């Protein structure tokens, strides 16, 4: 029951509400980019003062008349509002304009419907669409006022509207059950990675900040990346090998946006949990964006909604190629820990610095020391070399190997345990002071 959409090219009039309240107002340029991403052909753009919103139309009746004339003049198929409309406002405006009316939430849902590729992504979009549509069913079936009747079935029966609502409730329940299964499968996969002590890193950030381009550059993948909003919808996981640390799992996730509809946050909770269960978040920021501070605040707000506000974060200022006089660099806090990295995912400048910063933040528990290994532990010595953990080797007078190693402590403990030794005792007995 996935909702189909038009192929694009619909003639649309955009209506932006210019509010005095900066917190409630939307970005008009972002609104136009959203409409473009949805495939709309914008024929007119109106900025309407929203000092006194009305319950019937949201905007004043005079503006409604003006917009109606423009709809007829441009033969528009669609009017899109950069604001959330109530179901009654949407119906009233459609009667006046005699064409479809869409609000900001419906527009974002439509974009998500285009981008969904995996079975899980389509289920999540459909859930959000059904939830949004359930409040917008109208009595358009008066010719079928009573569905049931006849011998043995006489009585009030069930209206078409009630049937539709019942079918929606059934479908919503089915989708939630399927998504719960997906959620448990993801959790099982995460537990497997935890048992293998493989750290997980998630890319988060405002939509169109360059997350997928960075993901491709780091992992040499071919994830779809484009200069448009919500180019990525389905999460993608890849293995990334880091010097001095070993393998990590890198996740590319859906981008956030100002006033992201709560229906989408709830529907995509299974996907967003990939971020909330990560060991490190890479907050990708468009360094060239004039509104980047507001975008950063919005991302932090969504991270709070999914319970990821307390996770370690490394800020990645991307699109350095669009700035003049700024070189790739790692900025550190007072303790010397990496705090932000400036780079360009497009031309690759600064990528080694990002890998270094990730390794530093995830490698807090690295074991760096010189070990004395007697000949009876030759197999353990070979495993250190196989992992690339040996920085230098020399020999003691008794023939023991003196290995200067750099290895995650969990990996060291695993190797030592395989040899039937106690990790703590081994480290105490074999580490040179």
Percent strand equals 15-25%
Give the C-alpha Rg.
Answer: 28 Å
Q: How confident overall, as mean pLDDT?
A: 80
Number of strands: 14
CA-based shape: elongated
SS-based class: alpha/beta
Q: Provide the succession of SSEs.
A: EHEHEHEHHHEHEEHHEHEEEHEHEEHH
Intertermini distance: 67 Å
Biggest sheet record: 7 strands, mixed
As laid out across the biggest beta sheet, the strand order is 6-7-5-8-9-11-10
The CATH H-level superfamily of the largest domain is P-loop containing nucleotide triphosphate hydrolases
Q: How many domain regions?
A: 3
Topology:
Blueprint: E1 11-18, H1 28-37, E2 41-49, H2 61-74, E3 78-81, H3 87-97, E4 100-102, H4 104-115, H5 119-133, H6 160-195, E5 200-205, H7 211-219, E6 236-242, E7 246-252, H8 262-267, H9 269-276, E8 280-286, H10 292-305, E9 313-318, E10 329-332, E11 338-342, H11 351-362, E12 366-373, H12 378-386, E13 390-395, E14 401-408, H13 409-418, H14 423-430
Parallel strand pairs: 1-2, 1-3, 3-4, 5-7, 5-8, 8-9, 9-11
Antiparallel strand pairs: 6-7, 10-11, 12-14, 13-14
Helix pairs in contact: 1-4, 4-5, 5-6
3D architecture notes:
This protein is α/β, with parallel strands linked by helices and 433 residues long. It has three domains: 11-102, GTPase HflX, N-terminal domain (Rossmann fold); 196-362, P-loop containing nucleotide triphosphate hydrolases (Rossmann fold, 3-Layer(aba) Sandwich); 366-430, no CATH class. Helices cover 40% and strands 20% of the residues. The protein has 14 helices and 14 strands. Strands 6-7-5-8-9-11-10 form a seven-stranded mixed beta sheet, with helices on both faces. The protein has a four-stranded parallel beta sheet with strand order 2-1-3-4, with helices on both faces. Strand 8, helix 10 and strand 9 form a beta-alpha-beta unit. Helix 1 (28-37) packs across helix 4, helix 4 (104-115) packs antiparallel against helix 5 (119-133) and helix 5 (119-133) packs antiparallel against helix 6 (160-195). The chain is elongated and about 95 Å long. The relative contact order is 0.08. Mean pLDDT is 80; it is low at 1-6 and 139-155.
